[in-house]
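Priority: medium. Attachment 1 of 2:
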């Protein structure tokens, strides 16, 4: 399946390009807003992604910044692409953050999971058990929509060029019985299958590794084809809130953290064997 441009990534790229053009003119965001008769925070809100930039505002900014014809065409196209809808937009009520949009165009994802099996390889039964446990008051329709939204992420694996996935999973995530022994056996079988995929590297971080750098919780590093256009982002999720980090210092910190986890975890072959042993603990 061909990759479709992610509106989330295009919106981010548009914001970055508008900031670059503003910097080129030597103006502050407040100076631009004052010159255009806008509220003093309007430009900075555009650039931070806190509000949507309208087509007429893009053209106004391009005029002010003295954009070349080539820049004008490129940014107008970016704005048009940013206004399109990704498949996940239909699940806006159950996918409240932008992670899926950032994930959709990543070429490499390095993630650490402390409590759950990685989302891209969760079985439907495992997902349903998680949703029911976390949403005890949800009606069946909400449960079904949340399950469908989570499973929809798997389209990423069907791309002509799927992303390179390097996943480190805490032993706790594969030991905790979610949905019962039958569900866990099927879930572990899915993970073992994933270990054989050419674009996947999977490592188990055993309890015996002791204290480690990521005991604060799970995270993911998302890299893109052209870092100059789309720099790496770090995604943090603790179930009650999510956070996307883009500053170089944050990315460097989590990159180093991931390297430390790789060194402590079982190697991929040992990890596959480990998963097999855990699966054997559950009856057919």
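Attachment 2 of 2:
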């Amino acid at each position: 399946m061909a990759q479709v441009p992610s509106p989330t990534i295009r919106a981010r790229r548009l914001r970055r390009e508008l900031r670059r053009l503003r910097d080129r003119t030597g103006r502050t965001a407040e100076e631009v807003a004052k010159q255009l008769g806008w509220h003093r925070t309007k430009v900075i809100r555009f650039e931070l992604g806190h509000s949507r930039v309208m087509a007429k505002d893009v053209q106004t900014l391009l005029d002010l910044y003295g954009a070349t014809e080539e820049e004008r065409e490129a940014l107008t196209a970016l704005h048009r692409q940013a206004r399109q809808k990704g498949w996940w937009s239909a699940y806006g009520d159950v996918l409240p953050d932008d992670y899926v949009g950032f994930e959709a165009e990543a070429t490499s994802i390095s993630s650490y999971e402390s409590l759950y099996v990685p989302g891209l390889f969760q079985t439907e039964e495992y997902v349903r058990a998680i949703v029911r446990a976390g949403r005890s008051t949800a009606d069946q329709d909400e449960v079904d929509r949340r399950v469908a939204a989570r499973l929809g992420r798997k389209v990423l694996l069907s791309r002509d060029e799927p992303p390179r996935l390097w996943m480190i999973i805490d032993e706790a995530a594969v030991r905790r019985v979610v949905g019962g022994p039958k569900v866990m056996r099927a879930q572990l079988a899915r993970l073992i299958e994933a270990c054989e995929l050419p674009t996947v590297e999977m490592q188990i971080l055993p309890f015996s590794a002791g204290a480690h750098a990521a005991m604060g919780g799970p995270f993911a590093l998302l890299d893109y084809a052209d870092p100059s256009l789309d720099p790496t982002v770090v995604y943090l999720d603790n179930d009650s809130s999510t956070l996307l980090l883009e500053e170089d210092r944050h990315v460097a910190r989590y990159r180093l953290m991931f390297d430390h986890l790789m060194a402590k975890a079982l190697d991929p072959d040992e990890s596959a064997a480990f998963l097999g042993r855990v699966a054997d603990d559950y009856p057919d």
